[in-house]
Amino acid sequence: MCANGTSAVTLRMLADQLGLHVSTVSRALHGTSDESGRAASPATVERIRRLATELDYRPNPHAASLRTRRSNLIGVLVPRLSDIVLAMIYEGIEEAAAEHDLSTFVANTRDLPEIQRIRTDMVLARRVDGMIFGDAYVDARFLGEVAARGVPFVLVNRRAGDLPSVTCNDHLGGRLLGEHLLELGHRDVAVVAGEPYASTGIDRTEGFVSAYAEAGIEIPPRRIVRSPFDATGGRAAAEQLLADGRPPSAIFAVNDFAAIGVLGALRDHGLHAGTDIAVAGFNDTPLAAELPVPLTTVRSPMHEMGRRGIELLVRLLRGEQVESEQLRPELVVRVSTTGALLGGGSSGSKQGVARTHLHPPA
Amino acid sequence: MCANGTSAVTLRMLADQLGLHVSTVSRALHGTSDESGRAASPATVERIRRLATELDYRPNPHAASLRTRRSNLIGVLVPRLSDIVLAMIYEGIEEAAAEHDLSTFVANTRDLPEIQRIRTDMVLARRVDGMIFGDAYVDARFLGEVAARGVPFVLVNRRAGDLPSVTCNDHLGGRLLGEHLLELGHRDVAVVAGEPYASTGIDRTEGFVSAYAEAGIEIPPRRIVRSPFDATGGRAAAEQLLADGRPPSAIFAVNDFAAIGVLGALRDHGLHAGTDIAVAGFNDTPLAAELPVPLTTVRSPMHEMGRRGIELLVRLLRGEQVESEQLRPELVVRVSTTGALLGGGSSGSKQGVARTHLHPPA
DNA sequence: GTTAGCGACCCAAACGTTCGGGTAACGTTC
DNA sequence: GAACGTTACCCGAACGTTTGGGTCGCTAAC
């Protein structure tokens, strides 16, 4: 009974009750004013509308989809929704989708190619009109196949090949952070670089490295370690960096969660983030500002990324050509990189805290 | 064209190609062995199966739903997916749903009653078979209406009235934490209690308070402050508690994120969590263990809660009677409450770290 | 006074399944 | 050899929309 109890009121019921034909009712209710104007007199349209709301008529989407071959459904794949970055992107997707009368389906793929395949098939079996992938592998092998099958889709968060995507300008973000650390005088720095298949980590790292390169400093390979995009991964990567005899004076983790792991590892080693070693993250997740040591990071417009993703997809569904978009990142400086400037010694109690948008000293 | 490009192969195509009737093909493919056995000879069934896979036949769910009046769709409402607790519960929901060949729809309500209404209507308009609410208000007013409309649903994470729900045993969780802090000798404690409409905060607080009451200690009202379930909320609540002349010796936040906010506030005041003031959270989110000061907390089986939610709903959809379930919480002791025991002075560098399942000193 | 045009509708065929009924042929059984 | 069961299918009516075409009566124009 489809969960709506008694209310199985159909177009036909309305039509019968009004002595009209079902098609007339359909047009009156759904066609935009021009269509419904052609279908019935204004008075009749009004009668129809009134009865529809009175009886609480709800169109049956299955019937409509069957007829029109459009489901108004969008499938969304993400590595995991419990990654707040993806969750926030998805919130943007959902919000924008609702504005376009689209519903979204989301599934977790855990970044595993086999699961990506399975989930994609499941989602397509539901006859979605289009898809959004938040878990693109940079090589675009699988996504190329999907594209070849004629499925309209866009990528968010990560880019791949020349498939249409909405990403943060990760290269620029990495560069901003590189410049920030350079200004603070850090020469020997390290990167916790994320997974090698994700464009986010790749581009952020590249941007960061190139900022240093332009300052004439080459970051040696042993200072760049890959890691999962979570706290555990960040911690492990930091351990690896600290195992080295001379630790770097600053660590850039390409993701806030990894940065939190770095913070934890530092503390295990009796080091103070911000004073002993500068730490920066990426994304400006809500937690970054609230951490015991507020985290310098790059704000990426996650919500907006989701919204733009839907926008692009909608245009794709209309048959328009679309261009990939890159959204502007914004550097957010906090104590985790400026602690040393603020007079907090390594014993570090009661030290000043700059929590939002502090700009680097000139 | 529903995103599947060329592949619009239908039952009729299979039937025509095999010289069979479409109903025969339908039964062969979908009825369980007894049904399909009745419908066609084993050899024919085999022929049908083979052709179906060869042509990559995918049943059209809209047509099936239209006919059967079952959509195999479940609507899920959560306050916000960017709350990792709900995201993890949803992961459990999605996983279990997939095992039952159900698809799920999720929507954010931001814990706002008007949006709960709107989203519920949207979800119902999609003709879901049932719903899962993760955003129940304890008063169950709105949910009572939904129940009255005959929609099958279950609650997860929060309970309300006597509606079927799957929750953590929050009362017990609060109690475990109370007993833990009592054992550590804390007499003057405070609670960051969450939102007054959420059973989670209510029950956890109550369990905690009752543990103290049984030890003959009454926690005064000014030591119990409500707050949003996020870091910002926790920070504000902690500020309020610290503004009091004599701060408590321990703070229990009913949610890990609020606890992180508390941690931040403490640091702003030059206080060390775990040594100066003990801090505990609830949920054991993945971050809790990785924080610079690893957080004592109560593990709530979030993933399992989601899974059980689907399990209950499935039984409800079969018309069975169901009972609410409470899952076991588990105390996880970390440095944020035991720091003082571990010899870390208030200057606090290079101190020992107990990260997982440390049990309180006997 | 025919016809063209238009307003306000109606008609009917889809869309792809499912499922309660056939039915014809082929044994068995008494 | 009549009655009865099976086996292996077929038939057709739904399910609730959408949409390309009518049609009928009326006014306006030539």
Q: Any chance you could write out the topology, listing elements then pairs?
A:
The structure is a homodimer of 362-residue chains.
Chain A lengths: L10 H8 L3 H9 L2 H7 L2 H14 L5 H8 L4 E6 L5 H16 L3 E6 L4 H13 L4 E4 L7 H8 L4 E4 L8 E4 L1 H14 L5 E4 L6 H16 L9 E2 L5 H13 L6 E4 L2 H13 L9 E3 L16 E3 L2 H16 L7 E3 L2 E3 L2 H4 L24
Helix pairs in contact in A: 1-2, 2-3, 6-13, 9-10, 11-12
The structure holds a DNA duplex (30 and 30 nucleotides).
Key features of this structure:
homodimer, alpha/beta, Rossmann fold, 3 domains, 6-stranded parallel sheet, 4-stranded parallel sheet, 12 strands, 13% strand, elongated, disordered C terminus, DNA-binding
CATH topology heading of the largest domain in chain A: Rossmann fold
Helix-strand sequence of chain A: HHHHHEHEHEHEEHEHEHEHEEHEEH
Number of helices of chain A: 14
The biggest chain-chain interface is:
A-B, 79 and 79 residues
Would you report the number of β strands of chain A? 12
* Sheet with most strands of chain A: 6 strands, parallel
Commentary on this structure:
Two copies of one chain form a homodimer. The first copy, chain A, has 362 residues and is α/β, with parallel strands linked by helices. Chain A has three domains: 11-59, no CATH class; 71-168 and 303-328, Rossmann fold; 170-296 and 333-342, Rossmann fold (3-Layer(aba) Sandwich), CATH 3.40.50. Helices cover 44% and strands 13% of the residues of chain A. Chain A has helices spanning 11-18, 22-30, 33-39, 42-55, 61-68, 84-99, 113-125, 141-148, 170-183, 199-214, 231-243, 256-268, 302-317, 335-338, and strands spanning 73-78, 103-108, 130-133, 153-156, 165-168, 189-192, 224-225, 250-253, 278-280, 297-299, 325-327, 330-332. Chain A binds a DNA duplex (30 and 30 nucleotides) through residues 10-12, 20-24, 26-27, 30, 37-41, 44, 59-69.
